[in-house]
């Protein structure tokens, strides 16, 4: 295990600026990339390209989703076995959440983590993690400023997408005056903020509605919390992808009288669990006990080798115990 070195964004920016312009640079996001992961990764790639770096690639798991408008020619979905001189992990600190892209880490000379989740990495040479910030996109905004390159309209479109999706449209606890300040500067570049918001939150396709129907059909409500379960078979039957789950997360989190909502879903060979809390209960502690991470009000865990029922039993027991503490 490497000795992780915590650094400031300025120090990490100086490391990046010391890399040759023709170096192979990979920007990697986590499996099941969401708006923040995609926006932060591609936004950073725009900045590096603007600085004159000629071999910048963004590696993401391929998903068909509403965020494809941010994709560029340097976004790839398969590792081409070209070793990297520098790998930057964005919105992720866990090597296991890279899946097939773990090979990139093994073959890369230097690794950097930039994240806003509480769980620290165990494989990078340098990292900046600030869990008090609501989105990785906000951190990337500051990082790009430290790099000394302008935040263009293309960059702003990506980062604004990341900010609104990971803050629940500026509703979560980590949102503060600084969050709005950054968002305002992104808007001032001329982005179509209304379209970005409508696309992310108020535009649902038929597949998403069908997925919500399955989630409601499988919904279980207990005292103070609820949970639903969706299998690979159910997801495949309607052609849903991992990014279609946002409507389920939002709908369950908004249920009246519910403090904590949980989504259990089969994912590849294992299980993915998403927690949301709109009360004072900390779901990140539960996620950590399942090998995951996140924030007090929003967290998750992925285990590619777990059994769905085993994870459900363990997680529900932990939530019941947590809820009882408030009674």
Structure description:
There is one protein chain. With 327 residues, the protein is of the alpha/beta class. The protein has 2 domains: 9-199, Alpha-Beta Complex (inorganic pyrophosphatase (n-terminal core)), CATH 3.90.1640.10; 206-324, Diaminopimelate Epimerase, Chain A, domain 1 (Roll). It has helices at 9-17, 35-50, 102-106, 136-147, 153-166, 177-187, 193-201, 206-217, 232-237, 246-253, 284-289, 308-324, and strands spanning 24-28, 55-59, 75-76, 86-90, 110-115, 126-129, 220-222, 225-230, 260-267, 270-277, 293-294, 298-303. It has a 6-stranded parallel beta sheet, covered by helices on one side. The protein has a 6-stranded mixed beta sheet with strand order 7-8-9-10-12-11, with helices on both faces. β4, α3 (102-106) and β5 (110-115) form a beta-alpha-beta unit. α1 crosses α4, α4 (136-147) packs antiparallel against α5 (153-166) and α8 packs across α10. It is globular, with a radius of gyration of 19 Å. The chain starts with 8 loop residues before the first helix and ends with a helix. The mean pLDDT is 90.
